[in-house]
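User: Here's a chain of 314 residues. Predict its fold as tokens.
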Amino acid sequence: MRFLTTKNVFLAAILITVLYLALILIAPLLVPLPDTRKSVAPIPAGLEIDNQRVTFPSTQSGINLVAWWMPNESAKAVIVLVHGHGGQRTMEVFGGMQLAKQLLNAGYAVMSVDLRAHGESDDAPGGKLAPEDLVLDVMGAVDWVKSKHPDLSVGVIGASLGGATVVMAGVQDKRIEAVLAVAPALEPAESIKSYLVNVMSMPEFVARHLSWSMLTVHGQLGGADPLEIGAQLDGSRLFLIHNEADPINPVSGSRRLKEILPQAQIWITPPALDNPIVLERGPWGSHVRSYLLHPKQFAEKTIGFFDGRLANFD
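Assistant: Prediction complete.
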């Protein structure tokens, strides 16, 4: 086997090294992530939700946010809804406005916010959407609520990237008394890898290295560890809901946080892989769809959690 000379082995090693460096240094910059700047869908007319378009600053200077404020004259508390990456304040994929209607009927006022670089809110500086920065947007929403209704308690519901964001916001902002995280992106490396495998059909080996590079080398989703930060949360303030078969944010993240915070509540919803709602979405499958798949149970558990945590009742 004359081709296995020292020179050829050396050249092969150089080629492999160059290809690997290209994989971790260049390829991550070419990965097309989901578009975040989408138009805001209207609230379905049939829901008959009274709403006001409001604007307010993030707690990060220079960023203005847009939200819907859904008042309730007899509100016992306020729930802030936080969408995921590529979403907007209607939260259509999650079923946000349907849930908002149920929360209103249960005696809550509701706000649904466009995070930076989403919907009608301002762009993100540098184009990066790090959860630790999105926390500042959630805190801006809480500032607005408290400026209008200082006596009302505040709870938050976040989905996917928004789920990881509200977990971290609950640690940083003690005014948030109840945190519901739905399919939270608590393990960013696993989430990116799952996206690359399940949506972009990459081999798992390539996806794992790209994911590591996107986070570690390029810092494309910030430097915070949502699990490490979430471990500082009072577990009694936290409710985790996650579908067993979530193809984007693995359920392992929610299970790990529950182990760290034994006082937290958790509901792992069944896969429902043959459900039309799951089938029509293809690779996105059951991601953040626990409410649409189990609307009655979801609403009952959610409202029960907030009723137990937010104490402003007459």
